[in-house]
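ok so I'm stuck.
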Amino acid sequence: MRALKIFALGFAPIFLICGVLALLTTQPIFVKDALARAALSDPEHLRTYVRTLASSTSPRSYPRLENLNKAADFIREEFAATGASVSEQVYEVDGQSLKNIIAVFGPDSAERIVVGAHYDTYGGMPGADDNASGVAGLIELARLLSSARLPMRVELVAYTLEEPPFFRTEHMGSMVHAAKLKAEGAKVRAMISLEMIGYFSDRPGSQHYPMPGMGLIYPDAGNYIAVVGSLQEIGLVRRVKKAMVQAGDLPVWSTNAPSIVPGIDFSDHASYWEQEYPAVMVTDTAFYRNRNYHHPTDLPETLDYKRMAKVVDQLYGAILQLTN
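replied:
not stuck anymore, here's the structure
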């Protein structure tokens, strides 16, 4: 018995450290339940946007410029239909013109919120979840923001060239956008990257994680949306998660971790970290849940548009809180 007590005491600091780490990575844990409210986003809108991007403009991958431009034109038209101020950020790669599509809402304030999603795909894949889902969420957010009274500028940006072979290079659309903001001296209060937001599963064991032991803290079913940030983004992750929880009933989990943890910096938010802007990623956790990732099976019919609509509503609530 004495040996057992000594053993337990010896491991007490380890348990304490693990508890503190769990608290830091998943905080805030206790959040006031969401108020009952009517749904704002339309699942059928989202389904239509995803189908268009994953079929008539597919594959949306470099160097298929015709399809990339068709996708960009579709996004620009949908943004413009909301009454937003819409522009193109055109730049050259290997002598070819590529473009980000930008929709602006609210006044021309000193600070701004940026919400972005990449519209290109990996190889010849249809890319329904990766990342037509993120772009569909962006378009639906534009519809919601068009009737909001915003106290500051909100930019919605559809990026090109997030996928290989341009990932982590200066040619990523988000790199181009973030660098231009920095060069202009723009102040960004927060950036949110939408990276795959449409795949969910209630099946036990459907959710996987990059590090051993994470399954002891997080759910084993992929039925939630995640907010991801670096260790420097603890405050922003906390604020976005709290606002999303209060804006809807889809479970929201979060993590703050260094970029050595695979997946933490695997999207456009990392481009803003490069420019020292605060940024987080909202994701269904991509390949840790969706086995269709970067495969021909990443099709529109595999997505859950009702839960995806909940994500958009919760993002809308987070944007409104971040602007105040």
